[in-house]
From TrEMBL:
SUPFAM superfamilies in the cross-refs: Alkaline phosphatase-like
Source organism (scientific name): Jilunia laotingensis
Posttranslational mods: The conversion to 3-oxoalanine (also known as C-formylglycine, FGly), of a serine or cysteine residue in prokaryotes and of a cysteine residue in eukaryotes, is critical for catalytic activity.
GO cellular component: a single term: cytoplasm
Record's protein name: Sulfatase-like hydrolase/transferase
Example of a GO MF term: sulfuric ester hydrolase activity
Keyword presence, Transmembrane: no
Residues bearing the modification 3-oxoalanine (Ser): S74
Keyword field: Hydrolase, Metal-binding, Signal
Domain Sulfatase N-terminal, residue spans: 26-362
Pfam families: Sulfatase (PF00884)
Signal peptide region: 1-21
Amino acid sequence: MKNLYLPLTAALAAVGASTFAQTTKPNIVLIMTDQQRADLCGREGFPMAITPFADSLAHQNVWFDKAYTVAPASAPARCSMFTGRFPSATHVRTNHNVPDVYYNKDMVTVLKENGYKTALVGKNHSYLKASDMDYWIDYGHWGKGKKNTPEEKELARFLNQQARGQWLEPSPIPLEQQQPTTIVNEALDWIGQQKADEPFFLWVSFAEPHNPYQVCEPYYSMFAPDKIPQPRTTRKDLPKKSDKYQILSQLEDASCPDLQRDLPRLRGNYMGMIRLIDDQVKRMIETLKAEGKYENTIFIILADHGDYCGEYGLIRKGAGTPECLTRIPMVWAGYGIKQQKQPMDAHVSLADIFPTLCTAIGTDIPVGVQGRSLWPMLTGQEYPKKEFASIIVEQGFGGEDFTLNEPLTFAEEGALTPGKIAYCDELNTWTQSGTQRMIRKDDWKLIMDNYGRGELYNLKNDPSEINNLFGNKKYADKQMELIEALITWNLRLQDPLPIPRNRYHFKQNPYNYHFTD
């Protein structure tokens, strides 16, 4: 991280904001899941009760069905959420580039300047460190950071040695010891210790429903293979996608030879994990309601990115920017939120979280932030529709695409560890190489890569993106419209940092809008 030039007026304003107790500012509880796709919920028409509480909260508050990650990988997404900057600006384009993060001022710094106590309970996978927060209990996909009890040690042993990638039977880890349960326990404990006259920010970050796919009863039986809907696509559709999808399928099959046989059960586990989280979020929020803390708290429920969950016969993530990986759930509830029963008609991003919270607590959006404030629309005020007419997603670390013709093997690269069932790294040299950008606008989606190859889909008619209309003369006007929007977004996201140090005045809309009509 680098300390960058700030105009004197902004620096003085920040100092002034921190000199008095911010007793009227709302608390903030940011609830994040890891690898949860957006469409597996009742509010979007999924026929099973997978997120009943989040659905009810959404209909009583505000929710988005066109919310997107900045990139379908954990570290790039989380670093962007806390900085309000896209991966091309943070320099965190992969899970291996967290130390390269680049920004001016982030969410935690701004909240602390405004009198907030800050805490993480759950998974980090960002540039943040324990010393950055007032309270820190970290969890991972294979157990808690500090394992103090026999139960915590046994859970870590099970996840590491037996369920490294997946567990096809009901999990032997009981509900009270599952990580979503203990995360909520510890989150509520910390909230209970906070002073009434000091606002707090709590990041409740679940490591699930990311693999290892394991879930206990009753959630295991709740989503049995014979009960859940079938995916819209299979491996037969892979030839309609790019080579990277087929490379990923070969890696998954090398790691788990029986994947296609096991896929229905893995999908059921994934859904059960989401329902388990939903029940624990319900317990947390209803507890805060009973304690009188709901009305003065902003609640945000979202994910860092999605999961194939059987789409194209794949699991996890890795190749491309399909909707199942890039579109995320997003619900805002509580303090200041005006009810909108239908989904908000706006294209929004994970990068919009930080600037929105700046507006909500009455402070300026720092220079270098690229996201926009959603606060006007969340509170029922007017906002420019053109500003939210489209949204972009980034993917890839650059260079040339790697293919299977390379001399490099999965094992040599580290993407495959022999002898461990379903232990592979889907975010690897092959799937992450090159550069790709996607843009969503209304029912349409355009994807372009650094070779000039394009994909164009009508998501209403083709939600799984298997009928590529790019180059079809019938849709030439729509293709050009989306190319124009994509170029506009790419120019908009050219990093302004560092801003000029002499004479020039930097202009920034208070909500970070570019379009104001």
